[in-house]
Amino acid sequence: MEEKIYDVPSEWKHRAYLDDAGYRAKYEASVKNPEAFWAEEAKRIHWFKPPTRIKNTNFGPENVSIRWFEDGVTNVAYNCIDRHLHTRGDQVAIIWEGDNPSESKKITYRELHAEVNRMANIMRNRGVGKGDRVTIYMPMIPEAAYAMLACARLGAIHSVVFGGFSPDSLASRIQDAKSAFVITADEGLRGGRKVPLKVNVDAAIETVGPGVVDHVLVVRRTGGAVNMVPGRDVYYDEAAKLVSDDCPYEEMNAEDPLFILYTSGSTGTPKGVLHTTGGYLVYAAMTHNYVFDYHDGDIYWCTADVGWVTGHSYIVYGPLANGATTLMFEGVPTYPTISRFWDVIDKHQVNIFYTAPTAIRSLMQAGEEPVKKTSRKSLRLLGSVGEPINPEAWEWYHRVVGDGRCPIVDTWWQTETGGILITPLPGATKLKPGSATRPFFGVKPQVVDAEGKVLEGACEGNLVIADSWPGQMRTVYGDHERFVQTYFSTYPGKYFTGDGCRRDADGYYWITGRVDDVINVSGHRMGTAEVESALVAHPKVSEAAVVGYPHDIKGQGIYAYVTLMAGEQPSEDLRKELVAWVRKEIGPIASPDLIQFAPGLPKTRSGKIMRRILRKIAEDEFGSLGDTSTLADPTVVDDLITNRQNKR
Ligand code: WTA
């Protein structure tokens, strides 16, 4: 198949920060002398005490440790708000677009300053200070950003939990972080439906047990009646009336923690990815600036939820550090109509639009008309994140949404990386649909084979990063050993991404998806082990194995093989019951798409489930099951295949 290549459009040659030669020169400089390069880039944020020690990082095998700008002193909220006040106090910082198109508002930097300070004072009056953990469980309303920035102002560490997670998932995150302060809303609103956030918080606190959560701050979103526990729960609007809109910021060391964000891995419960202050902010700001070719006055919209890292780095911290106008959208792409994204773009004259392939694939199904009836003239640049974008979706995004005018930046990165690592730069990089193209400044990707041998030239293998960049996570909260084990033990001395990757003859990177037991469902990361443990918690389930399979819209779907307890019979009702059970245990994003009842699972003689085989069956690739002779009972495979085929 002939590979399509899109040149840089001519108007971009005039406006972009860098052309191809500029990219190459800057990239060379960044990897040749990282110290000098990052010392210069650090100046894009304000330091109360500028760093003199720039890079102090060690990928092991011994003493894995990552420190950037380690003697610098700064504050993230100061950088995202205060320092802009004298130049852009009256500029809009946040455009908020509500679930219902009749609701929207604009918050200037001056107003943002007042709101964040009030929220910080409310927290400070209740004892929140440097190093304390605050859990944020919010809908997509400006108060979610205020809460994050208020934590940053006080030096408290926020842990944002996506509002779609269940009370149990919330409880385990509150527990792991030992978070005494929770910020939530009465209810969320998405696609016209209410999400019972406060009810979920109450249930989570019940699960966590007494003595952990002392305070719950409740933002009134819908005004729905909720249970308020005296002495513990307080409404934000009532508390805000009693405090001033001036709150001093803490001076923070560059390596003081900024936030914890829980994310799924191959094994065990979600881990608390810890990001720190200075390096994270420099990296988020710089990538936002270059990748989105952000210029003063641009209206920028990232459709992610602040519950994910994309929302952290590219709705809140990167854009606000750059003094941008960032749009926050409460709703969903299909409400009230399937044109909603494009209507919002026209309504707010959005220039830069950043979304996930799963959204594109689902909107594609409705054809071009819902897009074409809108103008989208303001659009200049499109972005993609979260999962590989298939060339068909890329082409549609480019041709239909962008009218063939707008470059697409396909940005590869992870919760762990803090910011974008592999991406085109819109004025510099020729695009190939489906490829995240080339490394960002300072990033040294390598492709290795299973033994860890570094492959050269055009090749395919596993993606590792050979050296640190400032936005990298520093540790797993409370478990540094797990950090070392997870990321630095597979290929000693290198950061292992968990992704497979191909590099072509032009040096372009093509991410092929996870090579571990993490699956990517509609751009959401999910550990198969988490879904399995939810399933086996059901009294009728004896064993479960979960794998991903190709899904037209979600990218990957969740395929669960379930063995029932002796005496239990498979049935359609039980299937539904199990799906509902997983939704309740983890959240709707973990709902299995397919459940296959299996009398036995393929195991080695030592009892290990051979997921490779289950994966192949789920993918309908019965011909390539590989060696099944080591199985304790090879006949279970035939049964699994028969049932899989029967379902078709
Ligand atoms: C996948 C989201 C291909 C990848 C920012 C990675 C991608 C995981 C891309 C991280 C992309 C993200 N192309 N795959 N442009 N972006 N991924 O932590 O498998 O939620 O490891 O971070 O998403 O997901 P996470």
From TrEMBL:
SUPFAM superfamilies for the chain: Acetyl-CoA synthetase-like
InterPro entries xrefs: Ac_CoA_lig (IPR011904), ACAS_N (IPR032387), AMP-bd_C (IPR025110), AMP-bd_C_sf (IPR045851), AMP-binding_CS (IPR020845), AMP-dep_synth/lig_dom (IPR000873), ANL_N_sf (IPR042099)
AMP-binding enzyme C-terminal domain residues: 530-608
A Pfam family the protein falls into: ACAS_N
UniProt domain Acetyl-coenzyme A synthetase N-terminal: residue ranges: 23-80
GO terms assigned for molecular function: acetate-CoA ligase activity; AMP binding; ATP binding; metal ion binding
GO process terms (BP): acetyl-CoA biosynthetic process from acetate
Record domain AMP-dependent synthetase/ligase: where: 82-467
Similarity-based family: Belongs to the ATP-dependent AMP-binding enzyme family.
Reported function: Catalyzes the conversion of acetate into acetyl-CoA (AcCoA), an essential intermediate at the junction of anabolic and catabolic pathways. AcsA undergoes a two-step reaction. In the first half reaction, AcsA combines acetate with ATP to form acetyl-adenylate (AcAMP) intermediate. In the second half reaction, it can then transfer the acetyl group from AcAMP to the sulfhydryl group of CoA, forming the product AcCoA.
Name of the protein in its database record: Acetyl-coenzyme A synthetase
Species of the source: Microvirga flocculans
